[in-house]
């Protein structure tokens, strides 16, 4: 019988992702040649246990999310048996109210939570924009071993951009004694990665309390629980990156070219699943030159690609030069064009002989072309 339910929530950081979410949900931002951001938290959940309910909080750009998840079969889930449900979400963000974890999204889906069977003991809440391969099975075992009411996952000495009121934790002997935002103190604590485990009974009590008090942020309610509940921290080892801006997306993408990062994210024992697609193998022309790059199936390369990521069905034509760039699905770089330090969104086109480059550390984003 299922004893856990996983909820993937919207990210409050999406305001800094600019054109990348103009036509798509934050969940489905392309990453790593063939993946989407949601593939990481969703795979972490399904690797935890075979007996699992998963609810995904949608957004007002939900079409790409529905298309990506389909019936859930690529993650060993099924909508027919209610293993996977897309829930109503993102109402607070749409009207300009930003919270770390929106209580309103939970309230809007109260029926889903009230219908959970008595066998469900834990609710795992996960942000959709956290790139990490997390052993959630061990997290649950530690949570139960500590007899914790809540276990909040964090990264010590986080190496990444801190913005948008990131939440930090103060801990004593593993217990969370304070929760604060980075702008509230000069010194930061351990970075909360928008992922936690909570006892179902406590979650339902918090939901009822939120309705009475009109609070919008789940983290604010957790602050009030620190004295009365056992809130523990769980340090995530290894690679973690929060995608909270165009810059962080660009950096995390190119970090995949580092062998240690790639091995850690794509472990054999805990796979990262994604939507399956039948593509022809990558085609390399006689003039192709590829160095330190990831090139997905279905791509055609006739030019030079260095330190870059090329997605499915992208095309690099003869004489084109790509360096330190991300070329998304269906994008085309025509003959003799040069692309350096750039992100080409889906179906974007760089015309013949065009020169696209950034002289700063910030990448140039070439908007997607709708087809």
Automatic annotation (TrEMBL):
GO MF annotation terms: glucose-1-phosphate adenylyltransferase activity
The keyword Cytoplasm appears for this protein: no
CDD domains linked to this entry: LbH_G1P_AT_C
Regions that span the bilayer: none
Nucleotidyl transferase domain location: 28-154
Ranges of residues in domain Glucose-1-phosphate adenylyltransferase/Bifunctional protein GlmU-like C-terminal hexapeptide: 286-356
Keywords of this entry: Glycogen biosynthesis, Nucleotidyltransferase, Transferase
NCBIfam families xref list: glgD
Protein name: Glucose-1-phosphate adenylyltransferase
